[in-house]
Amino acid sequence: MEQKLTKRDLWKLFMRLNTMRITLNYETLQGVGFMRAIAPVLEKTYTDKEELSDAMRRHTQFYNSHVNGDAVILAVTAAMEESTGPDEKEGINSLKTGLMGPLAGLGDSLIKFTWVPIIGSIGASLAFSGSIIGPILMFILYNIVNIGLRYYAIVYGYKKGIGFLNDNQESNLIQRISTMANVVGLMVVGALISTIIKVQTPLEISTGSSVTGEVGENVIAIQEMLDQIMPSVLSLAVTITVYHVLKKTKGSHAAMIIVIMMLLTIALTYFGIL
Amino acid sequence: MTMTIIVITLIAFILGIDDVSTKMFRRPLLIAPIIGFILGDVQAGLAIGATLEIMWMGIGNVGAYMAPDLITGTIISTSLAIMSTNGSIETAVATAITLAIPTSILAQQLLVLIQTINVSLNSWAKRLADNADVKGTFWLIYPPALLTGAARAVPTFIALYFGAGAIQSAVDALPTFVINGLETAGSIIPAVGIALLMLAMLKKFELWMFLILGFVFSSYLGLDILPMTLIAIVFAYFYEMITRKTAAGANGANESSKNTGEEEYDL
């Protein structure tokens, strides 16, 4: 099947992909944005006005995915609109709904839960030492993936077309990358617990000699003791506690938990426990 | 000062639109240093940006769930913190953390409102589709873009223009132990962001093992994030391979047990 879209058309698709989320709304989420992004492609594919109108209507339906998933789906849709006959058009919508869930999950686990925490913590540690390189490095690393992957996905998705779906079913690519991203992300999160969260107690136990009655001869700093057993054990304890509270409340009261933690920390520092 | 506030308001407008389109600047660490630069204190901007970045690490929109608005929250809290604390970076960071939470949550409500208003775009889009008007689709994004920009710019202007004085006197009035407590809180609160990440990622019990691995590598062995990530990729590769093989192996085992069953039957 010959592919009609030129590099210029794909660039246009990329530009419209970038502004797709502006029309996000509670009825169709990105439905309007999807139709707007694909419209120039449809115009090129359908010469008949009635057909064009039908195609545009088809793409205003409910749609939502991750931004990099959007790129793949838009490109595959563009390729499919070209290659399918008039009675196969329903397949395009089922392709969209079939891909948007898995690709959203992949985008989230790859970028939001893995890449952003990694570059965020690298950037933040540089910024804490007062270096402007921190945010600049984060900006570059973030956007190489953010913008680069989006453009690549458009070009690759269009070239592969329906083949993308077949390839994916054969090798289960989305699932495999998701699993790997999940593991990398979790190991990074485990590392972040000890590098980023700092819970330290100035508490001391003084074991004064009972004979002389002197207090404070042998002072044991509790923090030192804890560090010998397990470094950052308090950070781990706080994180696991918050995790369980969040799990109980299904993650919906994060802001409330932050406020409570602030008040608690102020109280605990006041009494010299933290 | 009014000029500075107007410049920050403009930045809020631009970053507000960037957040829903190109998404190039949507993290606190990328926004706060810019604000710090405009207000003439890059160091405070860096410290606030790094703290907020880590604090909000696990926060992001997932599906239709709308997260606290980090853009407006970062812009307002960074500006007010730098404007109302004279030079002390620690106090500025403590002030920014305190302000970031209410501002992000209030601003989030505005975004919910905009997504509700945006519902009206659907009938416009359907009308365009009915007329097969491809040229007309070009304009679909402009009204909501203006609205989203304004949703960031207007609160920023109001907060900076009317809030700076009030925040300054509030910071001055706060007892030192509260400021100290807030500074400590800044390094404990990231636990919430990390716990949110865990909530999203720990889908199976066996995945806890990787969390333990990461923690041990970092706390006992003192590895940095970058070498840690490279090791993680190795583990991820083999974990994925093993889970795939076991899944295939389980299917294979079922088939072979069927076969032996048949053989026994033959005998």
Automatic annotation (TrEMBL), chain A:
Keywords from the named record: Membrane, Transmembrane, Transmembrane helix
BP GO terms, sorted: phosphoenolpyruvate-dependent sugar phosphotransferase system
Transmembrane segments: 179-197, 229-246, 253-273
PROSITE patterns hit by this protein: PTS_EIID
Any one Pfam family match given in the protein's UniProt record, by short name: EIID-AGA
GO cellular component, one term: plasma membrane
InterPro entries associated with the record: GatZ_KbaZ_carbometab (IPR050303), PTS_IID_man (IPR004704)
PANTHER family: N-ACETYLGALACTOSAMINE PERMEASE II COMPONENT-RELATED, PTS SYSTEM, MANNOSE-SPECIFIC IID COMPONENT
Protein name as catalogued: PTS mannose transporter subunit IID
Taxonomic source organism: Oceanobacillus sojae
Gene name of this polypeptide: PTS-EII_5
UniProtKB/TrEMBL annotation, chain B:
Keywords noted in UniProt: Cell membrane, Membrane, Phosphotransferase system, Sugar transport, Transmembrane, Transmembrane helix, Transport
Gene Ontology terms: biological process: phosphoenolpyruvate-dependent sugar phosphotransferase system
A Pfam family hit: EII-Sor
Location in or out of the cell: Cell membrane
InterPro entries from the UniProt entry: GatZ_KbaZ_carbometab, PTS_IIC_man
Signal peptide: none
Transmembrane stretches, start-end: 29-50, 62-82, 94-117, 138-164, 184-202, 209-239
A GO cellular-component term linked to this record: plasma membrane
Domain of life: Bacteria
UniProt membrane topology term: Multi-pass membrane protein
PANTHER family linked to this entry: N-ACETYLGALACTOSAMINE PERMEASE II COMPONENT-RELATED, N-ACETYLGALACTOSAMINE PERMEASE IIC COMPONENT 1
Protein name in UniProt: PTS sugar transporter
Origin species: Oceanobacillus sojae
